[in-house]
Amino acid sequence: MNNKFILFLGLFLSASVAVMAQDNISPARKQAIDSLALEKVKDLSKYVSIIGSKETQFSEANRVMDRAEELFAPGAEMGVSSINTQEIAYYKVRRYFERLMALNYDRVNITWYDIQYISDLERQPDGRYVGVITVYQRFEGTSIETGMNYKDTTKKDITIYVEKKQTQIAGRTIEFWDVMLGDVRVTETSA
User: DSSP character for 171?
Assistant: First the structure.
């Protein structure tokens, strides 16, 4: 081998390692990403509560649905379960919100609690990182006319995607890590 080729190969390998190192997440950056992911899940919790509430005006619920959809990766689905059946149905995010808004109760109260990571972020072959956050959802629906009162608690696992994106600011390209929510899977439902 000639020296120019060896020098080129050495420079190429050094550049490749530098690019790979940039894609690794430092502990400080990971902490910031974890905080952002948890914040997005908390935002989703608020949005679900607002959309499900019978006191929310239709126009406001639609505005909140738009905001909530922005939290999700394309194609994400949300699971729906009931203590009355073993079946778990999955709906695209917008359809889930529309169904939630149309529930046949006079009063709906939805609260999320015990929100926490259950799996650490793992790097995928495509360069994205994937993790899972678990939440517990308490659902209460009341119908005044029929006296029907339904309550359940559902444990849900939310897939978290972290990927590097780019934006233009003042003519400069800036790279940043972004968090998107993926599928919301029902893992258990109880009374």
Answer: T
Radius of gyration (C-alpha) of the chain in whole angstroms: 22
Q: Which residues of 136-169 are buried (b: 16+ CB within 10 A; e: fewer)?
A: bbebebbeeeeeeebebebbbbbbbbbbeeeeee
What is the rounded distance in angstroms from the CA atom of residue 106 to the CA atom of residue 78? 23
Alpha helices in 53-187 (DSSP H): 58-69, 93-101
pLDDT in tens, 64-107: 999 999 999 999 999 999 999 999 999 999 999 999 999 999 99
Amino acid at 186: V
> What pLDDT shows up at residue 23?
59
pLDDT higher for 180 or 29? 180
Domains contained in the chain, CATH given: 27-190 (3.10.450)
